[in-house]
Design goal:
Helix content of chain C: over 70%
Structural class of chain C: mainly alpha
Largest interface: B-C, 79 and 75 residues
Low-confidence stretches of chain A: none
Chains: A alpha+beta (319), B mainly alpha (252), C mainly alpha (276)
Number of strands of chain C: 2
Radius of gyration of chain C: 23 Å
Number of strands of chain A: 18
Oligomer: heterotrimer
Strand order of the largest sheet of chain A: 6-7-8-3-9-10
Strand order of the largest sheet of chain C: 1-2
Structural class of chain A: alpha+beta
Strand content of chain C: under 5%
Shape of chain A: elongated
CATH class of one domain in chain C: Mainly Alpha
Number of helices of chain C: 13
CATH superfamily of one domain in chain C: MetI-like
Largest sheet of chain A: 6 strands, mixed
Helix content of chain A: 25-40%
Chain lengths: 319, 252, 276
């Protein structure tokens, strides 16, 4: 089994501890995301797996082999960098061939052709990075890393440099690509939507620690901490429980019995295109948000309404 | 490679600095020969009592100061003029004069002076040296000040004009103060290249206006002479002080 | 506006026209004339002086000048590249280390050249030390040869090579080195296949900036070569002084200028955008 295991990884920077005891296992062939805000230690974790930084303590094992102490060029791991780090003096094909040439691979030409085809870049093989679009650069970076058939591919926020439309398209392509090549992907991101839509499993990081690991649904629906709940989406906090705005209903009539109800006054109603976002104030002055579909009526500022939800949708997370 | 590189770098720094340090060190040697025999200031005394040397130093200082003042003024105005509207002929000539081998600049100027003297009753001397020095150090000034201007925001002067300043006032009250550090650096550079120049100076100096580099050259040619080491040390320390003082002044 | 600008440029134009462009013009005129009986110049007009540039008698000196300038350039690049690489990776000490490279440059060129005479001459420090240690009986002929001149040129122009290489390496994206390592390149392979190709513009600039002053050097071969190791600059000086052949000296000067301008033109044409 070629799984990646991190065991008790610590890393200190001169001013503070960046990675504070991370332990996790990534199964073979998994699309695994490290999700967290900037500065949470996710990039440092990736750099330690790639070999650019060494952990102060802890073990990094891939397929049973300890990677600690190995130089980046000795590890069966490749990276798609946030900036892509394409060699500006080399064409797309030459960038892809770079690693194969270091290995003196006899099939370099064929492998380069196949890799470029895999990312649909065959027509741009002779382009220099300066003449490529953002998406083409990204595909080149992917092909360059995949062509070496690594046991693990690291992706450091690879979509963040793209414009929103292209980002959504590349998300689909990335997911398909991973399914096709079957290589384990470790994906670093601060975008929860990206992590939720792409991953088989997610680890949410905060201040150098892993707050929760699980499937996207588990993480989103049953967050282990308030941080995780809040980082993955908006939450209405009512005392020790929270509920997501899209699970919060709003009505003028009295809701069915068994529901948790809050009498409120609408303070703002916004049309967001795919839904309405209604903000209302309870008598206690608490602000709650409901995100409702078009068919569920329109509400005016100042209107008295009932905000309610099913208690089974509540996330019980004491402060 | 990680361990070799620092060693290599130390060796290069040694290559750069050790020859000068040794030279300075031996100026305090009591022996005339390059064997250390004890500390002594005898060569500094000899330097101090050398009348020709003093005269040459004075000449060099006068030439350097005058040509620095003129070259800095001419170069700064020129850089400003070129910044407003580039003249490829003028800026091209400036760059060209910077890369022209000194010996060629020197003989070309000599030829020009001699040609002019057929019509004017003048001769080679301090004046021709100063003219030559202004010409070559002006190019350095222009280059340094232009580099500074390239980072300047043209909107500042436009704002001044907009607020009612004349063009001259905009230059004097807005651009010139901003250029001060660049002008100071340019002047320092002009001073050192002028004070240091031998090749051009020797060609256009004529017979009775010897400069310090000319005396040094003659002594160096003649053979080992610890007085040269003493003079070198003084120049080394003097220029070092000048740089430190000017940096301090710029920061203050 | 126009009047103010003209007034600002006037002094610079005056000096440039009268003391740079006019002198160059006079050299052009002289180069096409004939040496007079008493050393002056006069008619007939001729191209003879340019033809003489290819005379084997001078060809040796020209070739030697190119070879020595080439050797100095090579030496400077070999010394400057690792130095610039090291400085560009030195974090907060960068400025200090760069200033240390520039420091000798602020001293008099004559003093710097004399320092090498002091070390290399027959009674110089190196020979005295070797003699004192009993390693030699006769002084080694270290001064007044091509090697001494090349060392002097390298010593004189090393900063010209360090600065462009440093600014090139400084701009180099460190992520590219990580990417190379990530793709399996050992440090020396990353150096050869990534850093070196991407530093080519800095190398070219450094090379030209050292080669030009080395080719036109006068003082260094004069003092360290001592007449035994003449370069073009010394030949030019010779024609204007002892040989009193101004037309040939002028043609020689213009030939040298042509090489200098050609090199600069080639550099700017290729890397002009990156440099300006």
């Amino acid at each position: 089994m070629s799984e990646l295991i991190l065991e008790g990884i610590y890393k200190d920077f001169p001013t503070h501890r960046v990675v504070d005891g991370i332990t996790l296992t990534i199964p073979q062939g998994c699309f695994y995301s490290l999700l967290g805000p900037s500065g949470c230690g996710k990039t440092t974790t990736l750099r330690m797996i790639a070999g650019f930084d060494e952990p102060d303590r802890g073990l990094i094992k891939l397929a049973g082999r300890t990677l600690n102490g190995l130089r980046p060029y000795e590890r069966p791991v490749t990276t798609v960098f946030q900036s892509y780090a394409l060699f500006p003096h080399l064409t797309a094909a030459e960038n892809v061939a770079f690693g194969l040439r270091r290995r003196k691979d006899p099939d370099t030409a064929k492998k380069v052709r196949d890799a470029l085809e895999l990312v649909q870049l065959s027509a741009k093989a002779d382009r220099l990075p300066a003449k490529m679009s953002g998406g083409e650069r990204q595909r080149t970076a992917l092909a360059r890393a995949l062509v070496l058939e690594p046991e693990l591919l690291l992706l450091d926020e690879p979509l963040s440099a793209l414009d929103p439309a292209l980002r959504k398209q590349m998300r689909v392509e990335l997911k398909e690509l991973q399914a096709r090549v079957g290589i384990t992907f470790l994906f670093i991101t601060h975008d929860q939507e990206e992590a939720l839509s792409l991953s088989d499993r997610i680890a949410v990081m905060h201040q150098g620690r892993i707050e929760q690991m699980g499937s996207p649904q588990e993480i989103y629906l049953t967050p282990a901490t308030r941080f995780v709940a809040g980082f993955l989406g908006a939450v209405n906090w009512v005392g020790d429980v929270g509920v997501r705005p899209e699970l919060t209903r709003i009505s003028r009539e009295r809701p069915p019995s068994g529901m948790r109800v809050k009498e409120s006054t609408v303070s703002s109603a916004m049309f967001l295109g795919d839904c309405f976002r209604v903000e209302a104030q309870t008598a206690a002055g608490q602000s709650l948000v409901a995100q409702i579909a078009h068919g569920l009526g329109q509400f005016e500022r100042g209107e008295r309404v009932h905000l309610w939800w099913d208690p089974s949708d509540e996330m019980a997370l004491p402060e | 490679m990680k361990r070799l590189l620092p060693l290599y770098v130390i060796a290069i720094y040694a290559f750069l600095h050790v020859p000068l340090l040794i030279l300075c060190g031996f100026s305090f040697n009591s022996s005339k020969f390059t064997v250390w025999e004890g500390f002594s200031l005898v060569w500094y005394e000899a330097m101090w009592n050398d009348g020709a040397l003093a005269e040459a130093t004075l000449n060099s200082l006068v030439i350097a100061v005058v040509s620095t003042v003129v070259a800095t003024a001419v170069g700064t105005l020129g850089a400003y003029g070129l910044w407003k509207k580039n003249s490829r002929l003028l800026s091209g000539s400036m760059y060209l004069s910077l890369v022209t081998p000194e010996i060629i600049t020197g003989i070309a100027m000599l030829a020009t002076f001699q040609w002019a003297f057929r019509y004017l009753h003048l001769q080679l001397g301090m004046t021709t040296v100063i003219l030559a020095h202004v010409t070559f150090s002006m190019a350095y000034v222009l280059l340094v000040v232009m580099a500074r201007l390239r980072t300047a925001d043209p909107a500042l002067e436009e704002a001044a004009l907009d607020l009612g300043a004349t063009e001259w006032q905009a230059f004097r009250l807005v651009t010139l103060p901003m250029l001060k550090p660049g002008i100071a650096a340019a002047a320092l550079l002009a001073f050192t290249v002028s004070f240091d120049d031998y090749v051009i100076t020797a060609l256009v100096a004529g017979v009775d206006s010897e400069t310090l580099p000319m005396v040094l050259y003659a002594m160096a040619r003649r053979g080992a002479n610890p007085v040269v080491s003493a003079i070198s040390t003084v120049i080394f320390v003097g220029l070092g002080l000048l740089i430190v003082v000017s940096e301090r002044l710029q920061k203050a | 506006m126009m009047r103010l600008r003209a007034f600002f440029l006037l002094p610079a134009w005056a000096f440039t026209l009268l003391l740079f462009l006019a002198p160059m013009g006079i050299i052009v005129v002289y180069s096409l004339q004939t040496k007079g009986v008493y050393g002056g110049v006069g008619e007939p007009w001729t191209f003879e002086n340019y033809v003489r540039l290819f005379d084997p008698l001078y060809g040796v000196i020209l070739l030697r000048s190119f070879a020595m300038a080439g050797a100095a350039t090579f030496g400077c690049l070999v010394l400057a590249f690792p130095l610039a690489l090291y400085i560009s990776r030195s974090g907060t000490r960068k400025t200090l280390l760069l200033n240390l490279v520039m420091l000798p440059f602020w001293t008099s060129f004559l003093v710097r050249t004399y320092a090498w005479m002091f070390l290399l001459r027959d009674t110089g420090l190196i020979n005295s030390m070797l003699f004192g240690m009993g390693l030699i009986n006769e002084p080694l002929p270290l001064l007044y040869n091509d090697g001494a001149v090349v060392v002097g040129l390298i010593y004189g122009y090393l900063p010209f090579a360090v600065l462009p290489l440093y600014s090139n390496l400084e701009r180099l994206d460190k992520g590219l080195l990580e990417a190379a390592a990530d793709l399996g390149a050992k440090p020396w392979e990353a150096m050869l296949h990534v850093v070196l190709p991407l530093t080519a513009p800095g190398m070219r600039a450094a090379g030209v900036l050292v080669f030009i002053p080395s080719l036109g050097a006068y003082l260094t071969p004069d003092l360290l070569g001592g007449g035994k190791s003449m370069m073009i600059g010394n030949l030019v000086q010779n024609q204007f002084t002892s040989a009193r052949d101004w037309p040939f000296g002028s043609a020689l000067s213009l030939g040298l200028m042509a090489v200098v301008m050609l090199l600069l033109w080639a550099l700017l044409r290729r890397d002009g955008e990156e440099m300006l």
